[in-house]
Amino acid sequence: MTPTHDVSVCGTYILDIVGFPVSEIPPGGSRLFIEEIRLAVAGTAGGAVVPCARLGLKALAVGAVGSDEKADWLLNAMVSEGIDISVMERLTDCQTSATILPIRPDGSRPVLHARAAAARLRISPETQERALKAKIVHFGGVGSLPNMDGPPTVEFLKAAKAAGCITTLDLIQARPEVVDLAVPLMPYVDFFLPSIEETSAMVGSDDPETCARFFIEKGVGGCAISLGENGSFVMTRDGRQFSMPAFQVAVRDTSGCGDAYSGGFIAGLARDWDIEDCARLATATASIVATGLGSGANLKSFEDTVEMMKSLPVRQSRA
Hints:
Number of helices: 10
Number of strands: 14
Order of helices and strands: EEEHEEHEEEHEHEHEHHEEEHHH
CATH topology: UDP-N-acetylmuramoyl-L-alanine:D-glutamate ligase
CATH architecture: 3-Layer(aba) Sandwich
Low-confidence stretches: none
């Protein structure tokens, strides 16, 4: 079968409303002036699909939005990026999932989130058939998709492998109990792309090698764990392992960086790159996004990102 898309990006699609800088919430009805407010396509799927598209991939968005003005904006924004939204489900009498992110001056942020439509996503057989016609299937949002978590996601990824797809997986703010949802997926996942905070919550260790080995032993083909300012750690079932340092950039906002890492990694896989080059492209993609505000910020093109990958200085790790 000739793939119809380079990647199907399945899972949580969220509208982020991002403000910077927010050092305090003004009391009562008073007002505080900030520099910038931005809307962004976000979520563990949405925050990856935009980088995939900007890095030159033909991408299919698979998720759910509501019947409100937030859905109009999200769908229009993805169309403007060249993303195929033909199987995005639009739920009636439901809000679109959205998050308010007041970004602190140091780039960190609290999260105010309305789960809404994403929590009702259930990929239909017809949508699954379309999604599995891609070279790569990325599933993002395990632990936040109650209608998909558990056996439905197992069966979806199992079908993706049976169809010959490369499969990638990500979580969102994993809690200790999410390990029970993630472990059954591992035999059907080629590359697991979590953060160290997520793996630590599930495995009980801050050591990326220990965390990666845990999931390798559960059946995953490879594990690329984002380490924030310390880059990432990659281990594969065939015995490869390495650390990929972060690039030195002026960080403005870290929201969406993990999803951007996934998008960059997928863009390398789609081009049949060596796994180390995939991790380097992923790191450059995340580093560029960290210099702006919100998911996908400042990311321009595949060519620009490769140039940055070759020219950005490497950050000295504190780990």
